[in-house]
């Protein structure tokens, strides 16, 4: 720190004391350890070359260590697990107790974006990276557009969730894995294998069986037309989310670190919230929230606002977990992880709300499990093939080195003999 010759002794002493305090913080073992660990976990570099997520993961593991990669992966999947199950149950809880505003249900899915400021500030304090570093128009503009797409997806999900039981809604959404496979093939050149194709066929068949056999599953007073509207709204939400995942994978190839993923998620949630806010304002949703909490919600205003508040938190966990899984793995793997949670959602809907679980829904669930296992088996076979290829390449390189070494030794013997 540069000090002026005119500076008073008291000010000089104060500045020196501040320098000593700052130095003590920066070089204390605890502070250094925290900064070191967070830097390794948070500042995971992405592959800017866009050669594929497998190479990205290998690069991350090489630079930050497998342990830190797995910690970050585990945190994101835990967020996805808690957010997915809790948000589905809370959304249905809202509608079961006479909450009827689909705009409110849409708004709470994205209105929790201020919560993302906490991890962003946390990253800023404990790492040397400045927030929103590397944000260019090529990243900012797609983030806004995808946020608007996410807002439409949230509205479709709200329509479907307001009409369908949790178990039916979850099983229909499980078809998004099939859609994700197709969109990933087109957008990020996902390789199609027999297990992937089998997964698509099985999950599509599962959805058809569910649609044909769930007419008795309608809530009391719900017409067939509204039930079909809810069913196709949920299918539409699955289609849009299947488009969202590979598009995000494509964009994440230009992202430098995990901290930037959180910042992009903040921008997307702000755009989605803006869309939902405009819809609510045009449809009288804000005044409807007040009326609904005081006169409509049968558990009272306090329970109403608690339901809304917890919905806001759980949806942020769900979306942030999804974004992290796509960044750290692939869009298809992120879709598989969400599909794996559908069984938990079905079971929770049956246990908590007493949803009907008849024979056709059981068959549909088994088909979902079959499709999921088919995909996992495909991943296992691909990993096995990659390991065999690596071993073959390593053996080939060793043989080439050995041949070169033998050739050099022969030349040396010839030169020595001639000498």
UniProtKB/TrEMBL annotation:
Bilayer-spanning residue ranges: 68-86, 106-127, 139-159, 171-188, 195-215, 227-245, 257-282, 302-328, 335-354, 360-380
Keyword Transport: yes
Top-rank lineage group of the source organism: Eukaryota
Membrane protein topology class: Multi-pass membrane protein
The keyword Transport is assigned to this record: yes
GO cellular component terms attached to this protein's record: membrane
GO MF assignments: purine nucleobase transmembrane transporter activity; purine nucleoside transmembrane transporter activity
Location(s), subcellular: Membrane
SUPFAM superfamilies in alphabetical order: Multidrug resistance efflux transporter EmrE
Keywords, alphabetical: Membrane, Transmembrane, Transmembrane helix, Transport
Chief location of this protein within or outside the cell: membrane
Family stated for the protein in its record: Belongs to the purine permeases (TC 2.A.7.14) family.
PANTHER family listed in its UniProt record: OS09G0467300 PROTEIN-RELATED, PURINE PERMEASE 4-RELATED
Protein name according to UniProt: Probable purine permease
Annotated source species: Solanum pinnatisectum
